[in-house]
Write a structure and sequence with these properties.
Distance between the termini: 19 Å
Signal peptide: 1-21
Number of strands: 10
Number of domains: 1
Order of helices and strands: HEEEEEEEEEE
Keywords: Signal
Largest sheet: 5 strands, antiparallel
Strand content: over 45%
Structural class: mainly beta
Radius of gyration: 14 Å
Number of helices: 1
Length: 133
């Protein structure tokens, strides 16, 4: 709910729908177990490794279409440092219709979990979040 409240209040740093290349990381696989879907919006966490320090990082990848309710989809990345009990939005919100977008990489080492959330934000609860990894 925190993420949606932030998005609805315009507190996200909104970015366009284009995918962002990020130097300095070796891209890993998208984690199917982290998939989030909501009214035709979708996203997954991608793990990557820093080329400078070898640490694990995570970013969100989103397929942003028009929702089944005719609204632009939004996607963002959240982090937990307490085993998934609480979550905090760590990326800017991406939105669009008919685009693929990615967040930047964020540290995801020992003690950290990352998950993606997607939705059309029609209502405060108009989103869904995937599992943490």
């Amino acid at each position: 709910m925190l993420a949606v409240g932030a998005a609805a209040a315009g507190l996200f740093t909104a970015t366009g729908g284009s995918a962002q290349a990020q130097d300095g990381y070796s891209d890993g696989d998208y984690q199917a177990s982290t998939k989030a879907e909501f009214v035709n919006c979708g996203g997954e966490v991608q793990l990557g490794t820093s080329l400078s320090n070898g640490s694990l990082y995570a970013r969100g990848g989103f397929t942003l279409n028009l929702s089944s309710r005719g609204r632009e989809c939004w996607g963002w990345l959240e982090r937990s440092t307490d085993g998934g009990h609480t979550w905090t939005t760590i990326s800017g919100g991406h939105h669009g219709a008919g685009v693929f977008a990615q967040t930047y990489y964020y540290y995801d080492g020992v003690g950290y979990l990352a998950r993606v959330c997607v939705g059309d934000l029609l209502y405060d609860n108009s989103y869904s979040c995937g599992a943490g990894v």
